[in-house]
């Protein structure tokens, strides 16, 4: 029978046998797959592993710091933190079209990945958190006809653009390739990953950049991060997190009139998007208690400067999508 302990033990043996004395690069994303992967590889090959975390500046408030701290303090795994916030913001400055935003973020990711892997390398292998369902699709890999080994031609980064340049085609190591998501969660839990990573809701690769409609600016990112943090705090406090597929805030690039005290305000609205779903392909807007919505609305309007209105999205998918861009 399958146990997490047996899986960890066997993976460690297989990783050691395959890697030998070579070097491995892993791009951390903050999710359960790449975190579990980092743990297994570090256990197997120690400092032959380099974990790289590219901070695009579009993650939720405190998430980059928490991730790096968790790896350093709890797992004693060093992380190469790459602060690329300014570059990514520059790359999408003035861009309002959703697909163009995604495309530019994806391309910037490849560029940063390429530069940093050259700076830290050379590496023989790229570790990827490929799961069993991805192996079947297998769109991001080639098989070397001579050795039969899978070779990365793309980085699995949730950015569906941009192949790797020819001189950067790593051999792949994919210790999670026989697992389904629920098995990865079990392994993640057994090695001590916190629930906030194990159970983490899906989070798009371009992150908050596609939850700010239209142009992304520093000011708008700050506002959205603060509103989003309040959503997360209240969803957790009310123990709703595991009931929902996703629960997040969206910032609209328009202003409406409001009143606070005896002052007229003219500020951004925040949309709350809470959905239930099995697989993300279809989704229902979540019927959460009005009291919870009121609490979140009051907190956002009172605590986040620049926001004077909160609305709730009651569109299911289809016809709506889960994200707004
Ligand atoms: P939509 O908005 O298409 O989203 O209903 C379905 C699921 O996919 C996630 N999503 C993304 N994930 N990169 C990702 O890694 C993306 O560009 C992206 N866009 C949407 C979304 O959060 C939802 O879970």
UniProtKB/TrEMBL annotation:
Domain named GMPS ATP-PPase: residues: 2-200
EC number in record: 6.3.5.2
Pathway given in the UniProt record: Purine metabolism; GMP biosynthesis; GMP from XMP (L-Gln route): step 1/1
Origin: domain of life: Bacteria
GO-annotated molecular function: GMP synthase (glutamine-hydrolyzing) activity
Keyword entries, A-Z: ATP-binding, Glutamine amidotransferase, GMP biosynthesis, Ligase, Nucleotide-binding, Purine biosynthesis
Entry binding sites for ATP: 29-35
Reaction(s) catalysed (UniProt annotation): XMP + L-glutamine + ATP + H2O = GMP + L-glutamate + AMP + diphosphate + 2 H(+)
Record's subunit section: Homodimer.
Protein name (record): GMP synthase [glutamine-hydrolyzing]
Organism: Floridaenema aerugineum BLCC-F46
Residues of the full protein shown: 211 to 535 of 535
């Amino acid at each position: 029978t399958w146990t997490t302990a047996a899986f960890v033990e066997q993976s460690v043996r297989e990783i050691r046998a395959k890697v030998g004395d070579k070097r491995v690069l892993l791009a951390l994303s903050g999710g359960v797959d790449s975190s579990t992967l980092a743990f297994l590889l570090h256990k197997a090959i120690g400092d032959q592993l380099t974990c790289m975390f590219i901070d695009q500046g579009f993650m939720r408030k405190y998430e980059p710091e928490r991730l790096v701290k968790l790896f350093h303090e709890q797992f004693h795994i060093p992380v190469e933190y790459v602060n690329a916030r300014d570059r990514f913001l520059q790359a999408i400055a003035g861009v309002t079209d959703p697909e163009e935003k995604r495309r530019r973020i994806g391309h910037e990711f490849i560029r940063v990945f390429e530069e940093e892997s050259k700076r830290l390398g050379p590496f023989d292998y790229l570790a990827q958190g490929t799961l069993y369902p991805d192996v079947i699709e297998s769109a991001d890999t080639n098989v070397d006809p001579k050795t039969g080994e899978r070779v990365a031609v793309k980085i699995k980064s949730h950015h569906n653009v941009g192949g790797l340049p020819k001189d950067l085609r790593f051999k792949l190591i994919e210790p999670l390739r026989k697992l389904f998501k629920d098995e990865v969660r079990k392994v993640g839990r057994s090695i001590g990953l916190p629930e906030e990573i194990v159970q983490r809701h899906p989070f798009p690769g371009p992150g908050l950049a596609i939850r700010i409609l239209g142009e992304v600016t520093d000011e708008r990112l700050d506002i959205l991060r603060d509103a989003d943090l309040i959503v997360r705090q209240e969803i957790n406090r009310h123990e709703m997190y595991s009931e929902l597929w996703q629960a997040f805030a969206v910032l609209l690039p328009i202003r409406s009139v409001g009143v606070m005290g005896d002052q007229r305000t003219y500020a951004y609205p925040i949309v709350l998007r809470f959905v239930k779903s099995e697989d993300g392909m279809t989704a229902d807007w979540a019927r959460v208690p009005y009291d919870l919505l009121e609490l979140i609305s009051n907190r956002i309007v009172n605590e986040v400067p620049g926001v004077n209105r909160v609305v709730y999205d009651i569109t299911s998918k289809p016809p709506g999508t889960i994200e707004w861009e």
